[in-house]
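Minutes, structural biology subgroup

Action item carried over from last meeting: produce the structure token record for Probable membrane transporter protein (Ideonella lacteola). EB confirmed the sequence was re-checked against the source entry. Recorded below for completeness.
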Amino acid sequence: MITDPWFYAAAIPAVVLMGLSKSGFGAGFGALAVPLMALAVPVPQAAAIMLPLLAIMDLMGLAALVRERDKPLVRLLLPAGLVGTLVGTVLFGVLSSKTVAGIVGVITLAFLLIRVVWPPRADAPPPPRWLGWVLGVTSGFTSFVAHAGGPPVSFYLLPQKLTPVAFTATMAVIFAAINASKWVPYAWLGLIDLRNLSTSLALAPFAPLGVWLGLKVVRRIDTTWFYRLFHIGMALTGCKLVYDAVR
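Output recorded by EB:
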């Protein structure tokens, strides 16, 4: 097990942040978790340590929210996300995690800029289904490499005008399946080992904490403030990912 105290100084806040993201409250902050943990360990190891913790968070999120999901959106985005994990398996090691982080960061900041400069009209139609498929594949790929799948698929969900609970539940179902699909490829790539698993076990008590705190808030928060916080989290995530890529 990792015993470096500086690792846990970064890892514990990262796990709580990811838990908040899984609950929907502060959802934009979830992609910060692996970069934050990667301050102390390499990115692939950080992703491997986070995977068992994601399983705990996904089970909590599904138990609380699965009935609130938007079924048509899940049917569209989930198969695309699973295709993205296959792409991630094939390209793992070809594209560095920092390159992927930079791409996700630039796309995130560009999306937010577009929404600020050209805010969507109240009567605007939902985005086309082909865009959902493209963003779903992208989300599965970035999730596989760095657990940063939230921003791409969020670009398709945000214009759907879902309630906070429906938005959170839809994300929870999609990423529970995507995260479950990573176990065999991660093991095949040599990322699942006793050192990483024992470190995950040490961090496990903190996994439910963020989810529990977030679920308490997400059912009470005003829709306007929910999306404001989401955009703030996305902006910070985009800046951090771009910084990690270019430093």
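Discussion: Residues 5-246 form one domain.
Next step: EB to file the record with the rest of the batch.
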